């Protein structure tokens, strides 16, 4: 707990001619444990104000008196330059009885027992001041890997429970030395109340294990030895901020290949760690936005186009046009990179499909066979946080995976949501996140993963419990996806039954669109939008699998107006792992049972397909045996990628679609206007976008030997153009009931080529286009949409229905 | 066969087909009920086990068996997995008008052979012929009684952490044999149904390990479903090794093509036993020594957490939750 901070010694006297005022100021937002009180203290000193500042359950309060203009300046300074980790939602000023000139000085009030102290910030990359200390020629934190201050360092990754005090973090095991304590207690110091504050005398200890040919004594510099290992092509197990990484020299093909073999990760691109922007510029072109994103305190992985000028080892990102780079997220990474002339592969330290390791023992046990050396430290990682992934789409940043550096930052929902009761939404199945909604804010968990994995399931339940405690959250309703077999849904249904909570079932694509609305701050009672939800697949209201949907939707309701023409998925989930099956399903639909036509398929893929048990697959399709129908757009990408020979089977999710995007020939794309034809018709009471003519044209191109890159470009162009035409048709149909806005959601929109083409198509029509920015377009954002829909429905009784 | 109202023709049919095949004194008496001396039952055990099941398989004849054999073995097995000695069965048959008499004879003879093999008597029965379209060819309904020997306490809720999970043989044979036999999927696969009585095997198992905690035959819903039932009832976790599950290559191959998981295929001769670790090896040896357990395997163990769940460990990827399915196997990947 706090002790009384020293009173500020002298307050410069203001001229007695100016009017003096007294105010109570209330600051709300993420304002505790982020250095707001010391900032107010310093500003009060600067502007000659007297009074006090403190924390309470609602945030930060300030009692201030002094010259009116100076009080304004203090408030203005808080607004315009809050502490880096703070988020100020509102500043409310109320006049209060002026106090006599006898009261002078400004002090920081002690925290009161029972005070909330619940706010926990996201982990933040090393600030400029700390970085300066790290590489200063002298100073007690020179070269110290755990340097941090109020403006940077670990936060949620080390928190065990609330209140957010050192004792409730994994720094609790390290008692501050007198020098650190002095900083901690001094409001003028940048480390005032920095809970993880420490130094080499009192902080965590870093060491290297396993490396051959070295003594393991504590006197050896572990970072220098880790660098030696990396230079020698070794694989390093590296304990990071929110979990372990496996690192190796990204310019060393042998090292990268060895890492792929040992980790059993054949294709999925590896993330990269660079020392600085200069190092990244050797390999990628970097826009101003890109620089900003990389240098953001979240230190995310940014997908950047390769320039081709210099190349990394081919195994880093096979078949990709992008590299995913991040800058050092913590002092340890700065120190490690400072001595290296090459970027590192820095991939999550896990067994494939498993969550990242966070405990030293687990990491040793699981990854001992993968790594040659391990750079470890003795502070526990409490909460697992994968690296966040960001991409620039259509010139603007979009988060693809939201975890370290962004969570648990709440997302403010439009005002009207404040009246909704607390809710818990359990999200999707793969790329799972959950979402707590309370007081008009949505707290989205970090990316958790595939819930059918046992360890991920454990992590899900632990995180859920932690978040409920952290945000003091007692849900009144539970929102789940409609899929009967989602683990998240089963967990949610059981929870609702056990705690007698209302259960809201939200259709997958409605949730996607609602997530996009919430991401864009669309008000609760706004007119419906035309939602275009393109993804892998989600359970539809008719029991088939949707994934290429046009919905007239607001938060409460969604009406399916149109979809892609459905095709069977021969072999169910197997067909998702084997895109060649989707290719066959399409060819079967286009050419029927004419096997000879299939055999005439040109190229290697035709030969491959001819060797498959096509008779059985055709019968499965014809009889509907384990071949549910899907209107998925993502599966269409899979099929095209397979037919043009890019990807028959996948080893990671989204592989085929990523390969297809990466393959697009930019000249052919820029030419435009040469897209494949799609047909739009009416079937089953819905408008349908049918790919049959596209397939005929595509196969004709293949027969003529057209390059894959051109085929991929024509596919993207044609698809965007067809979706645009579908929007024209539906726009006419929904008429007055439609806001004229289009919302784009679903994993397919992480494809930058399609997104940009489509956004251009729609803007050309004068339509307002909403895209995902703060929350992933894929199932990582699903829980936000579920929460928004459930909240809107619970509030519905107060208003009328919607949707014309 | 024609649809009638219980007259002379019907009686002849019953006499002709059923009585001759099932020949036993209780049935031959032609009373409206079988009369069984209680003393016989009391010798065999101290509790009565009583079960019932309906059989509607399509096709009626398939590699490795037919509906008649299934109807006897299924009910015998439902009795056997309580530890009971199966003794008497009833047999109700519903026939669609026009069903070939030769096929009926074949099925009934097959029932008789199965009863003989399992050491049970079919002591009462009933036959109805319904109009065309009112039933699909032929349905059989069997009930059975048996006696549970004193001291045998087998229940799904008795699984305890530390126990071992044993299965008696290959899984998925029946499911694949039926799929192949339907013929509409163009599957050429030499797999026979595993339909067989398990009472002999259960007896051998109990002799070797009287403290068996749980037993169940993995019929509809397959191995995955039985393990989930155990996990839920006992509030424990069933953890097994993917590579330890006995599955024939042919079954694996067909599953690969169809995109189905063998863990969910129906079986007609697969037994899952949860036994205390102390007698697990003896139990496994006893099963392997029995013809119905030649391929028996220890596939995993009962653990405490995550309670109520089934976890499959695979070579490198760690554990996956194997759920009880609400419906069919549906794709979940978005
Ligand atoms: Fe989705
Ligand atoms: Mg049964
Ligand atoms: Zn700092
Ligand atoms: Zn210190």
UniProtKB/TrEMBL annotation, chain A:
Residues 22-110 form the Acylphosphatase-like domain. The active site is at residues 37, 55. It comes from the Bacteria. Pathway: Protein modification; [NiFe] hydrogenase maturation. Its EC number is 6.2.-.-. Keywords: Hydrolase, Ligase, Metal-binding, Zinc, Zinc-finger. Pfam families: Acylphosphatase, HypF_C, HypF_C_2, Sua5_yciO_yrdC, zf-HYPF. Residues 220-405 form the YrdC-like domain. It is an enzyme of class 6 (ligase). One of its GO terms (molecular function) is zinc ion binding. GO terms for biological process: protein maturation. It catalyses: C-terminal L-cysteinyl-[HypE protein] + carbamoyl phosphate + ATP + H2O = C-terminal S-carboxamide-L-cysteinyl-[HypE protein] + AMP + phosphate + diphosphate + H(+); an acyl phosphate + H2O = a carboxylate + phosphate + H(+). Signal peptide: none annotated. Involved in the maturation of [NiFe] hydrogenases. Along with HypE, it catalyzes the synthesis of the CN ligands of the active site iron of [NiFe]-hydrogenases. HypF functions as a carbamoyl transferase using carbamoylphosphate as a substrate and transferring the carboxamido moiety in an ATP-dependent reaction to the thiolate of the C-terminal cysteine of HypE yielding a protein-S-carboxamide. Belongs to the carbamoyltransferase HypF family. This is Carbamoyltransferase HypF.
């Amino acid at each position: 707990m706090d002790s009384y901070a020293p009173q500020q010694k002298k307050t410069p006297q203001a001229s007695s001619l100016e009017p003096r005022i007294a105010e109570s100021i209330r600051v709300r937002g993420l304002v505790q444990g982020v250095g707001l009180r010391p900032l107010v203290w310093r500003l009060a000193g600067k502007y000659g104000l007297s009074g006090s500042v403190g924390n309470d359950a609602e945030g930060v309060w300030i009692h201030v008196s002094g010259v009116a203009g100076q009080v304004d300046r203090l408030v203005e300074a808080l607004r315009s330059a809050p502490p880096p980790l703070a988020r100020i939602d509102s500043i409310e000023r109320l006049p209060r009885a002026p106090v006599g000139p006898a009261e002078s000085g400004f002090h920081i009030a002690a925290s009161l027992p029972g005070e909330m102290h619940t706010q926990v910030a996201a982990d933040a990359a090393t600030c400029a001041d700390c970085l300066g200390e790290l590489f200063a020629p002298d100073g007690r934190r020179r070269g110290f890997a755990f340097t941090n201050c109020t403006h940077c360092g670990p936060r949620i990754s080390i928190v065990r429970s609330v209140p957010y005090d050192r004792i409730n973090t994994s720094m609790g095991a390290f008692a501050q030395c007198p020098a650190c304590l002095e900083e901690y207690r001094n409001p003028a110091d940048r480390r005032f109340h920095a809970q993880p504050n420490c130094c080499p005398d009192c902080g965590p200890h870093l060491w290297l294990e396993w490396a051959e040919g070295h003594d393991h004594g504590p006197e050896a510099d572990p970072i220098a030895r880790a660098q030696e290992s990396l230079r020698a092509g070794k694989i390093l197990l590296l304990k990071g901020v929110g979990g372990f990484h496996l690192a190796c020299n990204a310019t060393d093909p042998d090292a990268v290949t060895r890492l792929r073999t040992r980790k059993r990760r054949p294709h999925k691109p590896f993330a990269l760690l660079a020392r600085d922007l200069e190092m990244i510029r050797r390999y990628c072109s970097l826009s101003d936005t890109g620089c900003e994103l990389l240098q953001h305190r979240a230190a995310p992985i940014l997908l950047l186009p390769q320039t081709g000028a210099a190349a990394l080892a081919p195994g880093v990102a096979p078949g990709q046009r992008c590299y995913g780079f991040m800058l050092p997220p913590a002092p340890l990474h700065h120190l490690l990179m400072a001595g290296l002339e090459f970027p590192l592969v820095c991939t999550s330290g896990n067994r494939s499909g498993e969550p990242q390791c966070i405990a030293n023992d687990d990491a040793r046990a699981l990854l001992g066979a993968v790594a040659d050396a391990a750079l470890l430290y003795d502070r526990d990682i409490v909460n697992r946080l994968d690296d966040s992934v960001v991409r620039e789409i259509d010139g603007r940043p979009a988060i693809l995976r939201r975890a370290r550096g962004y969570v648990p930052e709440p997302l403010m929902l439009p005002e009207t949501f404040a009246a909704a009761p607390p809710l818990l939404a359990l999200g999707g199945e793969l790329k799972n996140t959950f979402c707590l909604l309370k007081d008009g804010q949505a707290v989205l968990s970090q990316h958790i993963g595939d819930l059918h994995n046992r360890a991920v399931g454990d992590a899900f339940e632990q995180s859920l419990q932690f978040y409920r405690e952290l945000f003091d959250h007692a849900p009144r309703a539970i929102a789940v996806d409609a899929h009967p077999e989602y683990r998240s849904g089963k967990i949610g249904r059981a929870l609702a039954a056990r705690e007698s909570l209302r259960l809201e079932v939200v259709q997958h694509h409605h949730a996607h669109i609602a997530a996009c609305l919430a991401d864009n701050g669309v008000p609760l009672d706004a007119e419906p939008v035309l939602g275009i939800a393109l993804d892998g697949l989600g359970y539809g209201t008719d029991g088939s699998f949707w994934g290429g949907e046009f919905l007239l939707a607001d938060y409460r309701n969604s009406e399916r107006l149109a979809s892609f023409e459905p095709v069977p998925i021969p072999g169910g989930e197997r067909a998702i792992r084997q895109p060649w099956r989707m290719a066959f399903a399409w060819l079967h639909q286009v050419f029927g049972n004419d096997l000879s036509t299939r055999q005439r398929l040109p190229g290697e893929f035709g030969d491959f397909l001819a060797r498959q048990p096509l008779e059985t697959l055709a019968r499965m399709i014809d009889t509907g045996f384990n071949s549910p129908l899907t209107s998925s757009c993502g599966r269409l990408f899979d099929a095209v990628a397979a037919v043009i020979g890019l990807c028959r089977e996948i080893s990671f999710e989204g592989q085929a679609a990523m390969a297809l995007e990466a393959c697009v020939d930019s000249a052919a794309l820029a030419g435009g206007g040469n897209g494949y034809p799609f047909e739009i018709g009416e079937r089953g009471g819905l408008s349908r976008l049918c790919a049959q003519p596209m397939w005929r044209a595509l196969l004709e191109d293949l027969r003529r030997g057209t390059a894959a890159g051109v085929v991929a470009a024509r596919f993207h162009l044609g698809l965007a153009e067809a979706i645009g035409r579908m929007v024209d048709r539906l726009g006419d149909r929904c008429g007055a009931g439609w806001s004229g806005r289009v919302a784009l959601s679903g994993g397919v929109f992480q494809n930058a080529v399609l997104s940009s083409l489509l956004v251009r198509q729609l803007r050309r029509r004068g339509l307002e286009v909403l895209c995902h920015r703060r929350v992933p377009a894929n199932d990582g954002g699903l829980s936000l949409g579920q929460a928004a829909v459930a909240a809107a429905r619970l509030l519905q009784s107060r208003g009328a229905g919607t949707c014309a | 066969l024609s649809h009638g109202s219980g007259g002379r023709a019907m009686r002849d049919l019953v006499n002709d087909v059923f009585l001759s095949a099932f020949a036993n004194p209780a049935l031959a008496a032609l009373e409206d009920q079988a009369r069984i001396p209680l003393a016989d039952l009391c010798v065999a055990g101290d509790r009565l086990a009583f079960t019932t099941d309906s059989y509607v398989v399509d096709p009626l004849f398939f590699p490795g068996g037919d509906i008649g054999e299934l109807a006897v073995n299924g009910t015998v097995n439902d009795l056997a997995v309580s530890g009971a000695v199966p003794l008497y069965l009833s047999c109700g048959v519903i026939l669609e008008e026009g069903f070939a008499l030769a096929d009926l004879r074949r099925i009934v003879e097959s029932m008789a052979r199965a009863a003989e093999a399992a050491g049970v008597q079919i002591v009462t029965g009933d036959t109805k012929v319904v109009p065309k379209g009112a039933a699909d060819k032929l349905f059989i309904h069997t009930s059975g009684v048996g006696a549970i020997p004193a001291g045998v306490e087998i229940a799904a809720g008795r699984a305890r952490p530390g126990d071992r999970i044993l299965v008696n043989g290959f899984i998925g044979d029946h499911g694949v044999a039926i799929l192949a036999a339907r013929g509409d999927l163009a599957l050429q696969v030499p797999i026979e149904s595993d339909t067989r009585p398990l009472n002999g095997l259960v007896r051998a198992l109990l002799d070797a390990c009287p403290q068996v905690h749980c037993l169940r035959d993995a019929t509809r819903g397959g191995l995955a479903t039985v393990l989930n039932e155990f996990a839920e009832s006992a509030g424990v976790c069933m953890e097994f090794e993917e590579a330890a599950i006995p599955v024939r290559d042919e079954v694996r191959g067909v599953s690969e093509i169809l995109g189905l998981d063998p863990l969910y295929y129906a079986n007609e001769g697969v037994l899952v036993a949860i036994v205390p670790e102390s007698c697990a090896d003896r139990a496994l040896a006893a099963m392997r020594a029995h013809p119905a357990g030649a391929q028996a395997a220890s596939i995993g163990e009962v653990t405490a957490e995550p309670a109520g769940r089934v976890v499959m460990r695979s070579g490198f990827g760690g554990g996956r939750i194997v759920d009880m399915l609400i419906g069919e196997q549906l794709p979940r990947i978005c």
